[in-house]
Amino acid sequence: MENFNSSILILGMPAVGKTSVAQSLSKKLQYQFIDLDSLIESKLNKKIPDIFESEGEDGFRKYERMYLDDLKEKDKLVLALGGGAINKDSFNISLSFKYRIWLDATIDVISKRCIDNIKHRPLLYNTNNINKSLLNLYQIRKNFYSTCSNIIIDTTDSTILEIVDELIIKMNELN
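The structure corresponding to this sequence follows.
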């Protein structure tokens, strides 16, 4: 396996496997793993839904952008982002990562995966139609995901290990 000397950004909708894939990939490459949402929670000593409640989505996005900017110079890092972290305000920062991996899945699969921890997803928690809410979010975010990413993987029917193996092949192809 080639030794990559650049950081890796994992992006995509909620519940596509960003954190699980990032953890597994970081172990395989022997890179540091950071989940941006967990980093924000630990730095602020608050859970994400509480940040949304006290500071709104704009306040939360400000923290995402700030910590993403802090991490852009790190080497040998696999960074899992929250679903909305790539937006007009953070887009240019994200381009400083050599590998920008969009994990995608069907809305039906994402919806089924979200149900288990819906209370931890502030943009989906108070909806009466999760599929419609996810579809609306996807329509807003897909342009950012597609223009930001240089690798796209469909996680709908794949295991974490299959996804990681496919990622390593695609990363080698970019070198």
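The mean pLDDT is 88.
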